[in-house]
Amino acid sequence: MYSSTFIFATKQFDDEFHRLDRIIADAAKTMPGYLGEESWENASNGLTSNVYYWDTLDSLQALIQHPVHLQAKAAQANWLDGYRVIISEVLRTYGDDVLTQLPELTSKD
């Protein structure tokens, strides 16, 4: 399993941002290999983090190469005041199963 973490600071979102964001989110959810996502906001530093989970690196690459994702990436400076993307291989997930609202993730134990 892989995760892609998108950390960013925002400027101002407009209608075009929301339109592209909606298309990308809908596309991701319908792609083979998409497992789920989580979002976090840090009020103390103004950063947002979106974490997407993927079954394979190829499925993650499919979203990265999606035409609307490429369009949004090219225009990111209109809406973002900096960003970082972290691609990680998930070695293991575990917990007490209380947080059932999180995506269904599988362990590689």
Describe this structure in words.
By secondary structure, this protein is α+β, with helices and mostly antiparallel strands. It has one domain (2-89): Alpha-Beta Plaits, CATH 3.30.70. It has helices spanning 15-30, 57-64, 67-74, and strands at residues 2-10, 34-42, 47-54, 80-89. The chain has a four-stranded antiparallel beta sheet. β2 and β3 form a beta hairpin. The chain is globular, with a radius of gyration of 15 Å.
Topology:
Layout: E1 2-10, H1 15-30, E2 34-42, E3 47-54, H2 57-64, H3 67-74, E4 80-89
Antiparallel strand pairs: 1-3, 1-4, 2-3
Helix pairs in contact: 1-3
Protein name: Antibiotic biosynthesis monooxygenase
Keywords: Monooxygenase, Oxidoreductase
GO molecular function, one term: monooxygenase activity
